[in-house]
Each structure stands twice: as structure tokens, then as C-alpha cells.
Design goal:
Low-confidence stretches: none
Distance between the termini: 48 Å
Shape: globular
Radius of gyration: 21 Å
Strand order of the largest sheet: 4-1-5
Order of helices and strands: HHHEEEEHEHHEHEHHHHH
Structural class: alpha/beta
């Protein structure tokens, strides 16, 4: 009776909320009578898999990853949760793709997520290094938001949520010694593959990322405490 979040983990976005325009449209389609077929009006779900075979009316999928369609999945779940025995024979379009290699997999994720705006760095949300950082920061009661909206949906304190961009700023400023790039153009720096790999390098000790964000939070606290005194020069 609950969402299987692990199935949706590879999706680059978390649930964007009931007020999100796309989610509102999905919900209205589900709730309104005499609507066209649901799958005509909805992009459905894209699943990447290691292998896929069809036997009669069944599809056998090995290591499925939902890389697009989390919003659709959540809205359907929310629609049926109050009445799980509701009789409804509408269908959802599900695409199961077996990519030949990692490069094609990345291109599929990028292409299937272009219908709504998403930052380039968010496409790295499922890189192993970000899972490691998430686990490390949790030891300090900090929540690393690999996927936009994930911890807000879980009602975590906003001041304890650390985005990928926020962490990247800290690393650019402290480790790479480029505070001008950290403050002004972190998105541009992260778009560049070489720069991204400098910031999030698999060879780096994960504790380094913890130290960077803790230092930045101390600096922010120091500046905030001085308020008007530093207002004109804070940037």
C-alpha cells in the first residue's frame, strides 16, 4: 500500500508536489470522466533494463530502473490509494529499453527528461559518488538532495537540505580555490565535463565533501549573524 521508492531511485527527479502544473494535469485526467485514453495524454513511464524478454502476455525485466515517469507513478498511486479496489481498466504507456552501453543509457535519460526543464547536473544524480556523499552527510543530520524535491517531499528541515549545486559551490571555492566561479557561475562550471569531474572525482575521499559543506555552513552562519554590518559586501 506504499510507494516502492527503490524502484524509482534512478529517476533524476523526485516527486515535484501536487501543485506542479504537470502533476495537476495528470491528476485532472485521472479524476475527470469521459476523458480520452490516459496513455494518449501522458508520456507514461520509461524503464531501462539489463535485459528484457516477452513470454506470452508477460514481460520479464532484469534490473529495471524507472528513469522517467516518476510524476506519473506518484499521481496514479495517490489517485488509487484512498480506494485500492477501484475498478479501472485504463492503461499506461510503459517503454522498456535495454541500452547497449552506459553512453546510450545516459543519452536516453537526458532525452526522456527534456520535456520539463532540468539542470545538467541533475542528470548525474544517480552517479555512485552522490550516493556515497548522501550517506556521509546523513551522519551529520544533513540531507543531500541528489534529486530535486526528494527531502522536501519527506518534510525534512529546509536548512538541513544540501543540494548538489550547494555542495559544488563549497568544493569549487575551498578545494579548487575558485570562489569567483563558485559564487557567480557554478551551473556553467558543472556543465563542463572536465570541470564536473574535478569537483566530483571518484578518487576523492568522501569526507572531503563533508568538510567543505561544514566549513561553508560555518561561514554562512558567521555572515548571517552580522546582518547589516556586512550587507553591502557579503557577496
Amino acid at each position: 500500500g506504499e510507494i516502492r521508492r527503490a524502484m524509482l531511485e534512478p529517476n533524476v527527479r523526485d516527486y515535484q508536489g501536487a501543485k506542479n502544473p504537470a502533476n495537476t494535469a495528470i491528476r485532472e485526467t485521472l479524476e475527470a470522466a469521459n476523458q480520452p485514453a490516459f496513455w494518449w495524454l501522458n508520456n507514461g513511464v520509461t524503464v531501462l533494463a539489463k535485459s528484457c524478454s516477452v513470454a506470452g502476455s508477460k514481460i520479464v525485466v532484469e534490473r529495471p530502473e524507472v528513469v522517467n515517469g516518476l510524476q506519473t507513478s506518484y499521481e496514479i498511486f495517490r489517485y488509487f490509494k484512498p480506494h485500492p479496489d477501484k475498478d479501472d481498466n485504463r492503461t499506461v504507456l510503459v517503454r522498456v529499453i535495454v541500452p547497449p552501453d552506459e553512453q546510450v543509457r545516459t543519452r536516453i535519460i537526458r532525452a526522456t527528461n527534456l520535456q520539463t526543464p532540468i539542470s545538467d547536473v541533475s542528470l548525474h544524480a544517480t552517479d555512485p559518488i552522490h550516493f556515497d556523499i548522501e550517506e556521509k552527510l546523513r551522519l551529520y543530520q544533513l540531507y543531500y538532495e541528489r534529486r530535486k524535491g526528494e527531502y522536501r517531499e519527506q518534510k525534512r528541515p529546509v536548512d538541513q537540505i544540501i543540494s548538489i549545486q550547494t555542495l559544488a559551490r563549497a568544493v569549487i571555492g575551498i578545494v579548487l580555490q575558485q570562489p569567483n566561479n563558485a559564487y557567480a557561475t557554478p551551473s556553467r562550471v558543472l556543465k563542463n565535463k572536465d570541470s564536473y569531474n574535478q569537483i566530483f572525482n571518484n578518487a576523492d575521499n568522501r569526507d572531503m565533501y563533508v568538510v567543505c559543506i561544514l566549513i561553508q555552513r560555518q561561514v554562512d552562519k558567521y555572515l548571517t549573524a552580522r546582518g547589516a554590518e556586512l550587507k553591502d559586501i557579503r557577496s
